[in-house]
Structure formats: structure tokens, C-alpha cells
Batch of 4 targets.
Target 1
Amino acid sequence: MTSHALTAPFSHRQDPGPLLRLRRQWALFAALGALFLFSGALFLAPRFWPATPQAPLLWFLTAAAALIWQMFYLWHHLAENHREGEEAILPVLGAGNALTLFRGFGFAAVAGFVLSPKPEGLWLWVPAAIYLLAVCADYADGWMARKTDHCTALGKKLDMELDSLGMAVATALAVQYGQLPLWYLTLAAAPYLWRVLVWMREHHSGRAVELPESNARRLLAGTQMGFIATVLFPLFQPPVTTAAAVAFGLPYGLMFVRDGFLMFGKIAPDSPLHPSAPRPPRFVPAAGFVARWATVVLGALTLEALFGPALRGDLSMGIFAGRGVALAWLLGGVGGLAVLLIAAGWLERTSAFLLLLIVSAFSLSRNVGAAEIALIASAIAVMHFGSGPLSFVSPEDRFLSGRAGLEEEEARRAEEEFLRHSGLRT
């Protein structure tokens, strides 16, 4: 989370040639976005709501509002299309920014569903699939920008702005579909509330607010987008999604509280809570260690409750009654392997996510008990904190450090910095 203070759209000292070319590219992307939404309303929306003729128009107007905001933001920051430390405006937006804008088109499409009737059948999967595709592309646009040497201040701001917009509309849609509780909207609005606080602080102090870099901030934002993308799929429903909302939302909310104290100077630079602290607080790896073994114990108990009867050949009990023992052996084995990997500290984040999916999906066909809810919370804790200093093989850490496209040595240093500040290594 960095300062979102608005800057002048362009400087009179700059050569108008590159800026004029950027404006022409802006017009091209605005036209492509409008064509994309118009095509969606014309060819796809009627299939979503065959009994509601006005629904396609409502979808188009809502999606168009999200697109207009994106184009306004891009226009306002075109003059910042320069590399960090340089002043010369680059005359092209670049492949990374282009992909970011295409992601924005997807977010606009998701926004169209927020005020529209809920689709039925397989069409209900479409909004979730669009958002998931846009979230996955978030990894590629940074990679493309670095590979083409086109990392700009505009790209950084545009990526953050569209991530906030996408998370806000996807969260609102999940709340509308009953997947998340109403209070989760406060977390979706947090980035925008943060801007108001930053503006008030800057207006009061007369200087810009700059927070220190934080890999934990990037980690929590990434897991938040992944959670929203997952919970949108109709595979899951309360109370599983409600329990997961608490486990995912609490660390994300605390991050904003911590950054608020940082902004107002209430956290000293030598405090263990400061992102730049040379050594992380001990409770972070300890929390990961406790969460790992809590997940192992609860995972074993829950897998026994879910799969035990069928694995023992009793097809009259459990969630696999009448469905065959082969499926029970397959999914029970995958879940058991995930528990073992978490216990060993190998691929613990991926294993926790896999265990979370299995338990959440199959909790739909039975009453969810305290063990399942506790397991879901513990698995999410492992996804947040890892397994502490006893983690052995965690290639996910490099992915979560968000430095796609760096050279091997740079990626290694970025990973070590990420692990040191997040408490996953001592």
C-alpha cells in the first residue's frame, strides 16, 4: 500500500510528442473496451437472463461505469509513463500495461453482474471464471514489463488501481450471491478509505505520505484476491465460506490498521512491527509452526470423518454413500498426502490450499462441524504464515514474492528479503 496522491496529468516541460502518442493509444484501448462490453451485452448477456429483457442493458451500464473509471484514471496518469528515476515519457504503453488494461476489461465485465440478477446453471460459473483469469494474468503483466524493460510509474499505479477495483467488484458480487457476509464489504472498501486517510494526512502535514515497502503487504493482497476468486465459484457456500472469510479477512484488516499507525508515526522504525525491522517478531514463525501442527491433527481427524467409512468399504455411511469407494480412495489419498506434506514442511502452502479445497467442497454434502471449521481456519493460517523456520521446500515463496521477470540472482535476493521480513526464515 503506497500513497495514492493524485499528480498532475502532465508537465508543460515535457515534449508533447510522446504524450500525444499515448493519448492516441488511450483512445484505442477505450474503443476496444467499449467494443468488448457491447459484444458481451449483445451476444452473451441474453443467455444469462432470458426471462429478464432489461438485464443486458443493466449489465452493460454497470460494466461501462467501471470501464469509464479505468479510462479516466489512465488518462490522468499518462504522463507518468516513464521508468523510475527517469523523466522522459515513453511513447508507448508497453505490453505489460496493455495486459493490465485487458485485465481491467475483465474486472469491468465482473462489475456488470453486481447489480444484475443472479445467473442460473452453468452460467453462474462465468463471473468467477472471468475474475480468476484476470487475477492469474496479474502475474504475467509484471513479468512482461520487466522482460521488455518497460517498468514505469504508470504501470505500477495502474496495476494497483485495477487490483483494488477488481477486488471491490468481486467482493460485492460474492456478497450479492450470498457467498460472503455483508461485513466483508468493509475490506473491499479499505483501499479507497485508505486514500481518504492519506489525503487528510497530506493535507494536514503538507507532505506526501510514503510507507516503507512490505512483502507481507503484497502477500496478503495476493492471497485476498485468490480467496475472492475461489469463493465466487458455486462449489462453496456458508458456513464454510463464512469461516474462511474470518480467517482471510482478519490478517488483511490488521494490515490496514498497522499501516494506519505507520502513517501517523505511531510505530517506531526499530519496532518489530515496522516493515523495515531487521528481524521479524518471533510470533510470526511460531504462529506458522503452531498452525502447521494444528492443521495436521485436525486434518487427520476430519479426513477420517469425511472418508473413513467409505475407505473401510462401508458405502452406507459418510459422504460417499452409494457413490463408489474408488473416489473416496482417490480424494482421501490426496487429502492424506497434503496432511503429510504440511507435517514435513514441504510445499505446505500448496498442500494447505489443496486440503482446504477438498474439505470445503465435500462439506457441502454433510453438516459442517467444529472440526471442519477449525481445519479450514488452520489451513488458511498455514497459507498465510507458512511453516516457520522448519519449512524445507517452499517454491511458492518465490512466486508470492511477486518478482516475476527478474534475473535469477535478483530473484534469489528478492526471495530472501521476502522470507526475512515475513518471518518465514530466521
Target 2
Amino acid sequence: MKRRAMALLLFVLVVWWSEGTPQIIITENHYKVYEVPEAFKVVAPITLVDQFDIFKTDSVVLDKFATPVDKNGSGIFDPTLHQTWWEIFQPQPGRDVLLDNQFGTQTWHVMDARYLVLPALKDEFGPPPVWNHYKCYDAVGPPVNIPVTLIDQFGVVNAIAVEPVLFCNPVEKTVAGETSPIIDPAVHLACYRLEPPQPSGFSAMAFDQFSAWPLMLIDHVWLCLPTEKRLFVPIEEGTWGKIKSLYRG
């Protein structure tokens, strides 16, 4: 009887841990996002398909750049993998998202689409990394107010990760008939405002699927964590059929 009781207790603990404890996703970087004061524009027909919607636009504007960052000693998954952030705008109905990351389990309210994020190289000529593109949405939620020590190639800073600002889905991007598929549909990004701002003036040459971009990086503004999305409010049935096909295993 004692053995059975111990086995039952172990089973309950395993189930509780696997279902109730946020898992750490190690197949994606943490990113520190910098402002780019001189914006660049790309004019081209672009179609984005993610778990929320299908979106078409004729232009995007580059105004941010992200570096891989070590957060509180968590390490860097791929030090070559950077990101260019391209501004878009798509009004969206609000929806709630339940998510897990190293800051815990959180519920966010997700709204309008704001950014297309492309994998990129920095100061290293060559084809851009084959990895997820992301579509990022305005988000609000309870502040986490977590102290972070951030180490990237530009140095070490201490800051506070404050409230949510953006939630990012992996996205399929098609430009002029050429499609970049979703590589890992399970990995999302949750982005938090950093306080205080850290003025800087670093230069970088970014290489993404659009072109090469000479950038000046000023204040860092956001910290983005690899994140698991547990639940969201589904959208209209007609669009949902197309979107589900991207996420079948």
C-alpha cells in the first residue's frame, strides 16, 4: 500500500509540474530591442499569415533593431541571430492570450498589429538566418517589475522589465510570390518595456531578406522573451481554416 501511495503521489507531482509550471523555451533567443532614428522604407506587396489573421500591405518601415541578449545568466541560443523590426498597422479586435515564459504565467489583452519582425545578421555579410518571422501586436497586462541584467555585444546594463508592450506570433511571410514559412510554430515572443531608458549610439549593418541596412541604434526600449502561448480567442471560421494548416505537426 505504501508503494502504491508513493507511486500515486509521484504521478500527481509530475502532472502538476508539467501542467502548472512554465517551461523554459531554449530554441529561441531573448532579444533587446533598440530604437533606429533613421527609418527605411520597403515598398512591395507583402502577405502575412499567422494564428490570428491574414494581412496584406504594400509597404513597411524599419525603425527598430534587436540583438540577442543574455538575461540574468540564461545564455544566448544563437548569437548570430538578430532581428529587423518593420512597422505595420492593422486594426484588430481585442483578444485575451494566456502565456508562459521565464517571468511566469500571464494573461495579456492583445490588440492591433504593429510590427513585422525579420531574422537578420549584424555586421556579417551573407544570407539571413532561416528562422521564424514574427508579427507583433500591441498588448496590455499586469506589470512584472522584474530586475534584469542584460548582456549583449554592446555591453552590460541593469534595468527593470516593467509592463507588457507587444505579443508576437510566428508568421508566414510572402513577398512577390516568395514565401518564408514558419520554422517553429510553438515559439512566440513576449516583449516588456525596459526602465530606465539607456541612451546609446551604436552603429550596425543589418542584413535581412529585404536588403542591407546601415543603422544607428539609440535607446533600448524593450526586452523580448521566448514564450509559449497556451490559449487565445479564435477568430472567424473562414480565415481560421487557412491559418490552422500552418500549425499542423
Target 3
Amino acid sequence: MDALTDDQHGHPAYLALDERDRSLVRAILMAVLRYRQDLEVILDSLLERPLPQGANSLRATMHVAMAQILFLDVPAHSAVDLAVESAAADPRNKRFSALVNAITRRVSGSSDVFRARIAGEPTHGPDWFQGRLADVYGAKRAAAIATMHRHPAAIDITLKDRDDAATADALLATGDGLRLANGTIRLKPSLPVTDLPSFADGLWWVQDAAAAIPAMLFGDLSGQHIADMCAAPGGKTAQFAAGGARVTALEKSGNRARRLRANMERLGFTHAVDVVVADLFGHDATALYDGVLLDAPCSSTGTVRRHPDVPWTKTPADIAKLADLQARMLDAAARHVKPGGVLVFSNCSLDPDEGEAVAAAFSESHADSFEPVDLSGCHVWLDPFLTNQGRHVRTTPAAWPHDEKSFAGMDGFFAACFLRLG
């Protein structure tokens, strides 16, 4: 999942805050979601009797206080007092304000013990999600992935010109950082993205290292006409344009299309990118391209480091529904590839039902018109992520470990490349 700029959409009360308070709110919410099951286990261990059925706001109030005490640089007494005030101000929770006070004070008094307990336990999460990871990746690899989900993602940056040493050096000079094997600049979060050097000059964009892979599978882009079938916010569109391609960028949402255009304007790519507000299924049936990218809608389970709400808001039924949609979209996208052209299918799901299974079914049903491409050796750094005899790319958050946890990993991503025959 790409991010060209910080998304400023949100609740009016949140948008009314200054940037410092917004940052604190974001940090609290991320900590609560990232450690939700751990907090729930601790809370249940401290309760003499279960909370009333449906007491979700009360539970959330205590989770917020506990997260501040255990994981954030917030004075414990402030977190306790705020939780008690919040409970007392809510008619549903007023009678529990003494309980909130007692529980949060106990957490504060034993914070070191609870932090050590969490660090020493396997990462918790929804049973369906943890079980699925273990089934697919095995217990050891699933545990490594789950451990990385406890750590926020670094800021990954794609340079407009990968040989732009001056911009790379300026970005790395803002703090701890390094350049990854694929050319991505990786930084520890320290400044707002828009305050980093050359943002306003449009010399780079934020894009997870794994999200940069699909566009790289097209090879030499010079003079090619590429269709990006689900383009917003535009990280991959920008890669195509930077590589010298002419790009037709489809986006069915008018709001997302406006954001896409704004991002292309900042990056100076409006001359190379034609943004089309359209649904893939309704796109001009006669339009053929040298290359087509379908980075399909998915469950986003590969992005839990940056979106820790995903396991709690998705279900196996969602995955099945999305896999069906992806298969239909891939069939539709294939109709727009010229003979001799390239089709790339990708998404940011960790689940093979949305990746490997969709690609395998497409290969079988289109054996007379599309040939899977062996990606071995196309990029040396990519080889460790190749599966299915080099025909599939599979990354996980446990990839590319580094001494500093905040530098480790990448999004979970799948990609497959097909050559149109004829």
C-alpha cells in the first residue's frame, strides 16, 4: 500500500487538533490496536468479575489508559486521571469510575512486570488471523511475522531518480537511516513526511519497499504505454512515469482520483500520466497496453505494522469475497494487454487465497494466451522472495531483518507476472 502524502481526512474533532496533539492521538490509537489482545489479557486478569456484556466504551477507556502507561511517554498519573474523568463523564460508565481508577493504578504500579510479561509472550491477535498465519507459514515463521506486527513500520522512500545521490544523502542526514538493496531509502520516523528535504520539490514519495516491487517487474519502461488499473494514491503510477512510460491511471473513486492527480502534480508527472475516473470493468474495451498492472483490492493483511486494525476488521469471509473479486478483475485486466505485453497481478495480502491461488487459477484458465514469467535473476535482491519456481513473489513483514527493529521488515506482498502470447 503506497502513501504519497499524509492523508488529512478524519473526524472533525481530530482535524481540529494541532499537529502535536494529532500525533499523540495517532500514537495512542496505534498502541491500543497493536497490543489490543495483550491489553485484554491483562485487564481480564485484574478484574474480579467480568465487565458487563457490551461495555465496549468502558473497555476502550481502560485500554487507552493502559496503552499510555505501558507503551507511551505519558505520565502514568495523567493517564489514570484522564481515564477516570472520561468514565465519569459518560452516563454509561459513570458507576464504573472507581473501578477504572483501581485497575489503571494497578497497571501503573506494576508496569514493568506487565511490559516484561508482554515481551515474553507470543504475540496475541484474533484467533482466525493467528491461526491462518500458522497454517500458511508454519509456527516459527508465523511467530516471526506476528512479532514484527508489534513494531511500527519505518518510512520507506522511493526516489524519483534512483541515482539522485544529493537527495538520498539529504534524507539520510535527517537521522538514522539506510539505503536498502532495492534502492529504497529507509528512515526512522522522526519528522512529518512533508517536512523532510525536497518533499515540496517532488523528488520522492513514500512507498513501502515491498510495494515498489510490482512496478519493477515490467523491466525497461522507456516508451511503453502502461495501464495502472487501481492507481490511487499513485506510488506505482509514479514509478512507471519515472521510468519513462506513458501511463493511463484508472481510479473509480473521484476523491481518490483527485488525490492521485495532486500527487502527480507534486512529482511533476502530469505530462506522462492520464488519470481516468473509471471502473476496470467499464473501461474502454478496445484499449490495449504494452503493460497492465492490477494491484488489486485486498484484505491488506500484509500492512498490519502500519494498520494494526486490519486483523480486527477483516474476517475469513472477507478474504474469500475479495479473492473472488480479484479473480474477476484479473480476467478483465488481461483483456487489455497487447500480444507480447506484460500483465502483473499483485496485492498486499499475506493470505495465499488472495495471491498464489488467484494467480494459479488464472494460469490454468488462460494457458493458451498467457505464460507465467520466471523472475529469477531479474533483480538479485528479489531472488530470496521468489517462490513457485521463480514465478511468484512473496514478501512478509519478517523479511529483511536488521539490528534495529524499527528498520526491519516490509509489507506482506504478493506478485506474479504473465506474458501475453501471440
Target 4
Amino acid sequence: MKVNFSLYLITDRRQVPGGGLVAAVDRALAAGVRAVQLREKDLPDEEFLPLAAELRNLTARRGAKLLINGRSHLALAVGADGVHLGGGGPSPAEVRRTLGPKALIGLSTHSVGEVAAASRAGADFVTFGPVWFTTSKASYGAPLGIEELRAACAAADLPVFALGGLTADRCPQLLSAGAAGGGCIGAILAASNPGRAAAALLRQLAPPFKG
């Protein structure tokens, strides 16, 4: 099963108090996180590559998946489990021809229509949001809300991970809307104790998607 996680950690080194992204991710992995997307869009390849290799080692040791945001060539270089794609780039089908049939491919979506199209495009799962307000997604406008998430999940035949403003208290709402789990950056990485924050989220999330 490609999607065997319910919490999807997305990186942003700028949100880690005092820096130390790798250490923060390792604490989250130790707490049970089983999927990490290395985002860091502003890093050039020559700086991104050693970071990706370090996280590949960490995730492999912890039995977790590593996805690379957008850069298929770097996913291949470090032996990552797959990639996460945004809009406007290559399609999941194109990327799969490069990475092979076993690659895990996530796709960012921001509307019910985009979710419905994602499976046809060849994605394995999608993130959907922002459901609640979050500074990292403020450029996408007002939060979509829980009812829009419910509609997106109803339109999907693949796992949907709610993104934006995730907290432990909100996990029951996203699960009741039909989401497979949640994705986050700051809820874990901006916390004073990333491991404790990850554990609190994992306690509230359902078992991994079984579809």
C-alpha cells in the first residue's frame, strides 16, 4: 500500500525555532510520523541535495516515506519514495514515467474540481486546503472550510489530506469530513517540542487510509 500514513509532515526550515530542521524532523519521526515532504522551494539544488540525502537516511531508518517537492531529478538522486507536485508543472503521469510505477505521487489541490481531476491525472493522494487559516497558505485566499473539505472527499477516490491550520482539536472534524488524515508544517516544526506535537496529532488521527 503506497499511502500508509495519516499525518503528512511538510518542511519549512524557517519555522523551526532556532533552526535545526533535521533535528526537528527526527524528533517527529521518533514520535511516529511516517511521511515527510521536503519542500524548501527557495534552496538551490546544490544546497537541497545534501539535505535531501540526510532526510532520506533518517526516514529510511525510521521506516518513513520521503517525498521531494517538485524536483524529480533530486528524488531519483537520493532514492526518495516519490514527489509532491503543485499546479502548473508536469503531470503525475509524466513524473511516473521518470520515477517508475512504485513512486508515490502527491498533488496539491485547492478546489473540489482539482481533487476530482487528481486521480484521473495519476496521483496517489492529494493535499487539500487551506481548510483553516495558515500563514503558509495565506496567498491562496480565505480558508476553504470544513464543508468544502467534505465535498472534496466525496468527489475523490483517493486519499485526501486536509492542509492548513491543523491542530489536534481539529483532527476529529477533518476525519468526520472523510479526510484520510492531515498535513502540516508549523503545527509540528514551530512547536517547542516537535515530537510531543506530532504525538498529540497522531493520537487524534484515524488509522492509515485503507482504500
